Amino acid sequence: MTAPAPAAAPAKGAAMARSSAPRSRLLSAVLVLIFAGLALAPFVFPGSQSLNVAAKICYFIVLAASFDLLLGYTGIVSFAHTMFFGIGGYGAAISLYALAPDWTSLAIGTLAALVVSVLLALLIGLFSLRVRAIFFAMITLAVASAFAILASQLGWLTGGEDGRTFRVPELLRPGTRLMDGTLFGVQINGRLAAYYLVYASMVLLFVTMLRVVNSPFGSVLQAIRENDFRAEAIGYRTVVYRVVINCIAAAMATLAGVLCAVWLRYTGPGTTLSFDIMLDILLIVVIGGMGTLYGAVIGATLFLLAESYLQSLMGAFSAATAGLPVLPQLFHPDRWLLWLGVLFILSVYFFPSGIVGRLRGR
Amino acid sequence: MAPAPSPPALETRDLTIRFGGHVAVDAVNCAFHPGTLTAIVGPNGAGKTTYFNLISGQLRPTDGQVLVRGEDVTGLTAAARTRRGLGRAFQLTNLFPGLTVRENIRLVVQSRRGAGMDLLSRAARRTDLVDEADAVLARMSLAGRRDDLAGALPHGDQRKLEVAMLAALEPDVFMFDEPTAGMSVDEVPTILDLIRRIKETTDKTVLLVEHKMDVVRQLADRIIVLHNGALVADGEPAEVIASPIVQEAYLGGAIEHA
């Protein structure tokens, strides 16, 4: 320490519930907007494409938030998160496909997936969380790759590369009419019921995770991230805490996978296990703001909106500038990934602490 | 002082660590009894901090044992030793920089109370933990800083917080590693008062690595001298300071060059 830091600004008034509250009016407003927007999505943004995007945002919020428990709160870098997501997806898929398309099979599939995930997370954690972080990252990468290969090889069970298409419990099927006529011009059918199942589960799981990080246990995780040496020196068995949060995060990712499967009525390697998804959640958490959970909400919303609509937005822009030089080519819809990349670089450059960090003024 | 009955609070037997060919701590045999404050002195590089690291479990010895109340803890982790009553403040400030001052202390109180696995309540509403943390902060005159991030504190306050974390741990054996190093003159008394209070009002065992001889004279019941990793003197402060080996090994050099 060369120069002592200048005296810090006087304590902010709202610091009492420091980690639990959004702590910024703008951030609170954005969060309310997102949660309300998702709650009303079927009515405000009718149409199957927007409903698909809204549902995907919901289960990605759970997936990214559970990844943030590891990366942002505990400082653990894991590449196996999509594996647990996949276990949830396949658990629901195999059970609904092989048994009967009813709630019992869904419950069995979910439970079985949770057991497998937590056991795997426990094993990986016990074997590798006591050693250096890079070693854990490599192990998770290897296990996740092995699992992806296994899932595509065990065709009789998983449907191989094609995945599994299956029927969901009757209440959730598109053909199920829950009400005669329409409500605000929207048919009240099984699709809507499925959406609200996904939405309500997301809210429940997200609140549960908030509860975890704001508990005494959650503060130990942050202590481990900040200085694991000192956490150990004041008496915390850091390995135990790392293993426990690894299991909790795996369980949450598994439930996100179940929601994904129920929504899509399909589980395949591309929707759950691919490494692209792993990169997506990494980006979502980093862009949204690590170690905040709220970052996962904002990150997932922005990322999936961009992924779903940037292409058509660019198509429109490209068409509008058809007469001009360069611009139409530059904004051709095929270049959307390029622009997404540029947006990421800019956001990481200008918001190193993520969008949430920025909104909180840090 | 009557000789302590039964096992000492802390004891090291033939404690040795070698780094390659260099013997950093060389077969140190020493026992520390409740109610005493032992100052550990010696020139830079004498192995004082390494000796501390071996006791608190940050390093594993090449040879020898560490015993807490007669129990061999040599194979235990630092966390396990802390739970058996060893507490340590570090020479180089070692905080949770991204957490608030209050959270730094609350985490310590929480560890001592064994509440770390509480997943259900809200940490900020565990008033039993928060109030105790606030009491420690008030005692260390850090209350006004409690909502600041530890990493944003001025150096002196970081040192105070470092010591406050040890105070909050309320261990049986307090290990202070140069607690006043780098502090401004007006901040030193807070730390010394704390150490004096521990010594005078409790039956705890205190180990103090300190360079300032006036501080050592004021506080210590006993001085041990490390030189090149070996224990070269052990006894009453006046007697040790006067001994030829100390004059030569430690103080002598300083006086000659003064």
UniProtKB/TrEMBL annotation, chain A:
Compartmental location: Cell membrane
Taxonomy, superkingdom: Bacteria
One cellular-component annotation, GO: plasma membrane
Keyword Cell wall biogenesis/degradation: no
Membrane topology: Multi-pass membrane protein
GO molecular function: branched-chain amino acid transmembrane transporter activity
Keyword Cell membrane in record: yes
InterPro entries cross-referenced by the UniProt entry: ABC_transp_permease (IPR001851), LivM-like (IPR043428)
One Pfam family here: BPD_transp_2
Main location: membrane
Protein keywords: Cell membrane, Membrane, Transmembrane, Transmembrane helix
Membrane-spanning intervals of the chain: 26-45, 106-127, 134-156, 193-213, 239-266, 281-306, 313-331, 337-357
Protein name: Branched-chain amino acid ABC transporter permease
Naturally occurring in which organism (per UniProt): Chelatococcus reniformis
UniProtKB/TrEMBL annotation, chain B:
Matching CDD domains: ABC_Mj1267_LivG_branched
Domain ABC transporter: 10-253
Any one of the GO CC terms: plasma membrane
Keyword field contains Transport: yes
Gene3D superfamilies for this protein: P-loop containing nucleotide triphosphate hydrolases
MF terms (GO), sorted A to Z: ATP binding; ATP hydrolysis activity
InterPro entries: AAA+_ATPase (IPR003593), ABC_AA/LPS_Transport (IPR051120), ABC_transporter-like_ATP-bd (IPR003439), BCA_ABC_TP_C (IPR032823), P-loop_NTPase (IPR027417)
Keyword terms of this UniProt record: ATP-binding, Nucleotide-binding, Transport
Superkingdom of source: Bacteria
Protein name: ABC transporter ATP-binding protein
Organism name: Chelatococcus reniformis
